[in-house]
Design goal:
The protein is of the alpha+beta class and about 450 residues long. The protein is built from 14 helices and 17 strands. Helix 9 crosses helix 14 and helix 10 runs antiparallel to helix 11. Belongs to the metallo-beta-lactamase superfamily. Glyoxalase II family.
C-alpha cells in the first residue's frame, strides 16, 4: 500500500526515529491482564518486543522535526497522560499529575515516560489520558500475571535511546517524521528495492529509507570517491559504501528536516573526516554552509548548489555534472521537486516555489535526471490527473508508476523534460492548469493548486 507523507505517521514504531537516537515503544501488558482490555493501544501494539530501554534526558535530541512536546521524566507513579504534552516542561504539571495519580497508582507501577502529542487521545479513553491508572481510585496497572507470576508492568508511550536499525532486517515498523498521532494503527511495511543508475562515469544508488524516503549514494567511477545525499539511516549508507568499495568523503544535505538530516551526526561519528554541506544552520553536523551557485567537487564530479527556498528557507538542490561528458546530468531535489509534485510551502511562498521550479530547476538541461526525496509518485499523479483529466502523459505515467510500485521498484528518477509534461506545479503557465485553478497568473495558480493539494483526498484506485 502506498503511503503519502500525511499518512506515513500511522506506520509501526519500533524503529520510528533511529536517526535521531530515539525509540518509541507501545504499552505492553501480560496476556490476560485487564490492562490490555482497557487500552486499545495495548492491544494494537502488543506485537512490539522486549522491555523498553531507559529514557533519554530532555534536550539531548538534535534539532529536527521530531515532536516538540516530549515530557521530562516525572518520577515513579506519574502517568504519562498527565497533560504534560500540551503544557510544557514537566515541572509545570508534576504536582497536578501526582494528585491525579493518587495512592492508587502505586509507587513505581507506571514508569515515568515521554509521550507524543495526541497519543493519549487515540490510545486512552478520554482527553490526553494514555491508559489505565490515570485517575485516583482506579488502581495501578497490574504487575503480575496469572498465578501471581511476576510480569513486566504495563507501560505508557515511551521514548528512549536506540541504535540504528539493522539494514539486513526487514524494513518494518519504520515511521515517518513528526506528529505520530495514529501510532496504534500498525500495518505491514512493504519492502522497497534499491536501484543503481549509471550515467557515464557517474553512478547513483537509490537507497530506500524510513517508509518512503530516498537516500542517494553518488559515486565518481573515475576516483572511487562518493557522496551521500540525506543519510537518515547511516548504517545502510555504510553498507552500500562497503558494497561498492568506494571512499565516502561528502554529505550533501538538502534541508534540515529530521527525515533528511537526522542521520548526519551519527554518520560523522561512524565515519571520521566527512565534509557535511547544507544551506541551513539547522542542518546537523554541518561543516560548510553553502549558498546559491556554490561549487563543490566529489572526485572528478562537479556539484553546483542551487538555493530553492520554500519548503524550508535553507533548502538546497545539488546539480551534478561530469566534465567532457555527453551523458545527462543529475539533480538531487530533496523536498522541492518530486515526480509530478512539489513540497509543501512550510517556510516560503508561491513566488519562491515558482522561481525554484520554473526559473531554476526548469532552466536545467531537459535531459537532467531528477532524484527526489520521497516516493510520492502515485499520489502526486492522481492529483495531477484531477487537475488535468485529459492529459494523456499523466495517465500513461500513472499506469507505469503503479506497475513499478507493485514490483517493488522505485519510480525515480524522472527528467526535467518529463516533469513539464505531467507535473501540475511545473505546468502553472498552461491554460488547462490555470483554468482548473480559476486563475490567469502562474504564481497565483501555483498557490491555488498547492492549497488544493494540501487538502486533496487521494482516490483508492
Amino acid at each position: 500500500m502506498f503511503l503519502p507523507h500525511s499518512q506515513k505517521r500511522a506506520r509501526g514504531l519500533e524503529e520510528a526515529m533511529p536517526a535521531a537516537g530515539l525509540l518509541l515503544r507501545g504499552p505492553r501488558a501480560p496476556l490476560g491482564c485487564p490492562c490490555r482490555a482497557r487500552s486499545r493501544a495495548a492491544a494494537a501494539l502488543s506485537f512490539l518486543p522486549a522491555p523498553c530501554p531507559p529514557r533519554i534526558a530532555q534536550g539531548s535530541r538534535p534539532p529536527s522535526r521530531l515532536p516538540t512536546r516530549v515530557s521530562k521524566s516525572l518520577g515513579p507513579g506519574v502517568p504519562s497522560g498527565s497533560g504534560e504534552g500540551r503544557r510544557g516542561p514537566a515541572g509545570r504539571s508534576a504536582a497536578p499529575a501526582a494528585r491525579r495519580a493518587g495512592a492508587g497508582a502505586g509507587a513505581g507501577a507506571v514508569p515515568a515516560a515521554a509521550r507524543l502529542p495526541g497519543a493519549g487521545r487515540r490510545a486512552g479513553s478520554k482527553g490526553n489520558r494514555a491508559g489505565p491508572g490515570h485517575r485516583a481510585g482506579r488502581g495501578a496497572p497490574c504487575s503480575a500475571g496469572a498465578g501471581g507470576a511476576s510480569a513486566p508492568p504495563w507501560r505508557p508511550w515511551e521514548l528512549g535511546p536506540c541504535s540504528e536499525p539493522d539494514s539486513s532486517a526487514p524494513e518494518e515498523h519504520l515511521a515517518g517524521p513528526a506528529q505520530l498521532r495514529a501510532v496504534f494503527l500498525h500495518t505491514e511495511h512493504e519492502r522497497r528495492n534499491s536501484k543503481t543508475v549509471t550515467q557515464a562515469d557517474m553512478k547513483v544508488e537509490l537507497l530506500p529509507a524510513l517508509t518512503d524516503n530516498y537516500m542517494y549514494l553518488l559515486i565518481d567511477e573515475e576516483t572511487k570517491e562518493a557522496a551521500i545525499v540525506d543519510p537518515v539511516q547511516p548504517q545502510k549508507v555504510l553498507d552500500a559504501v562497503k558494497k561498492h568499495g568506494v571512499k565516502l568523503t561528502t554529505v550533501l544535505t538538502t534541508h534540515h528536516h529530521w527525515d533528511h538530516a537526522g542521520g548526519n551526526e551519527k554518520l560523522v561519528k561512524m565515519e571520521a573526516g566527512l565534509r557535511v554541506y547544507g544551506g541551513d544552520s539547522r542542518v546537523g553536523a554541518l561543516t560548510q554552509k553553502v549558498s546559491h551557485l556554490t561549487s563543490l567537487k566529489v572526485g572528478s564530479l562537479n556539484v553546483k548548489c542551487l538555493c530553492t527556498p520554500c519548503h524550508t528557507s535553507g533548502h538546497i538542490c545539488y546539480y551534478v555534472t561530469k566534465p567532457n561528458s555527453s551523458e545527462p546530468p543529475a539533480v538531487f531535489t530533496g523536498d522541492t521537486l518530486f515526480v509530478a509534485g512539489c513540497g509543501k510551502f512550510f517556510e516560503g511562498t508561491p513566488e519562491e516555489m515558482y522561481r525554484a521550479l520554473i526559473e531554476i530547476l526548469g532552466s536545467l538541461d531537459p535531459k537532467t535526471k531528477v532524484y527526489c526525496g520521497h516516493e510520492y509518485t502515485i499520489n502526486n499523479l492522481k492529483f495531477a490527473r484531477h487537475v488535468e483529466p485529459n492529459n494523456v502523459a499523466i495517465q500513461e505515467k500513472l499506469s507505469w508508476a503503479k506497475a513499478k510500485y507493485d514490483s517493488g521498484e522505485p519510480t525515480i528518477p524522472s527528467t526535467i523534460a518529463e516533469e513539464f509534461t505531467y507535473n501540475p506545479f511545473m505546468r502553472v503557465r498552461e491554460k488547462t492548469v490555470q483554468q482548473h485553478a480559476g486563475e490567469t497568473d502562474p504564481i497565483r495558480t501555483m498557490g491555488a493548486i498547492r492549497k488544493e493539494k494540501d487538502n486533496f483526498r487521494v482516490p483508492k484506485d
